[in-house]
Amino acid sequence: MEYHCRFFDFSVPNTILDRTKIPIATKCLTIAYTAFTLTLFGLRCFIYFNSKPDQSSAVKFRDINVPALQLVPSQILKFPYSIVLSNLVDTNPWRFIVNLINLLIGGSFIERNWNSSNEMIKFILGIGSITNLVVLLITVIAHYIIPTWVSLDTVLDGNYTVLIGFSIIYRQLLPETTIINIKSPSFVSKNFRFKLLPILVLTLMTLSQLFIFCHLSNLLSIWITFFSCWVYLRFYQILPASTIGVSTDYYNSVQGDASDTFQLIYFFPDIIKPILRPIFNKTYSILNEKFGIIKSFGETDIDKGNDIAEQRGAKKVTDDVKDRRRQLALDVLQERLV
């Protein structure tokens, strides 16, 4: 789909908009998301209209929660399954509409590309539930450290995987594909590609939580979701080689995405890369060498990942990037030999 005007060009690949056949996992998740969200809305309305507030205060609709479907730390022992079900509900109309469209259209595109219904369910419910559990634990710990600042009765928004995780996948599958080309005025002209989508989504959602909603737990959930989704796609996801358009004679399956362009540092603007690079390198070293949570990529894995990324349209890495990668590998090797 394309739209052209004097000020900008807008285009979305037809492969994303193809809705001729919605895959089974996307269909089930979309139905579940719609059903649980409408059920939550109905229960909140029932509680609101049947409440009997005293004369000093009135019940506000936004303060009503349903712990069976929403993630409420103080009620988690009574409703532990809310860690999973909270991935399938939303209370904000705009979030519901955006997530529904994103899940229906983007989810179909991603599941067809992955050719795996299990991966789609694992990504949305599995990664989402892990994120919810981490945020829940941090919230409980923070409550006992600073109880006046962190309340266990506040609902944690447990549904960011589609909004944030899908933007990372779009960047992975369609890195150099242009979404919007701003032509006028010239001083703001910009060719906006899918590879910029994750940082744009993160920036907008971070600013909204800091200055509009002022909900630090949700801000934490946003960033943990981003890192969780990236770690899974980078190191753990296993897909058949045939689903990414490479020869099965060379290898039967691919684990993670070892390409240079999918490194965490390249999700962020150039201006802050010098600050983030040593932090990311140190964190990687700790998680890899001390805890063994994430694996090391060999030269073969990286070359294989670069080949796949280039087939998806990613630009080849520069010699400087390759030199830094080789130098980092040498430094790690020297540390192990010492």
Question: Can you offer a commentary on this structure?
Answer:
The protein is of the alpha+beta class. The chain folds into 2 domains: 2-236, no CATH class; 239-338, no CATH class. Helices cover 55% and strands 7% of the residues. It has 11 helices and 6 strands. The chain has helices at 14-17, 24-50, 82-85, 93-114, 117-145, 161-173, 197-213, 216-236, 273-290, 299-311, 319-337; strands spanning 2-4, 8-11, 178-182, 190-193, 238-240, 253-255. Strands 1-2-3-4 form a 4-stranded antiparallel beta sheet, with no helix packed on it. Strands 5-6 form a two-stranded antiparallel ribbon. The model has no long low-confidence stretch (mean pLDDT 84). The chain crosses the membrane at residues 28-49, 94-111, 123-146, 219-236. Keywords: Membrane, Transmembrane, Transmembrane helix. Its main location: membrane. It is a multi-pass membrane protein. It is found in: Membrane.
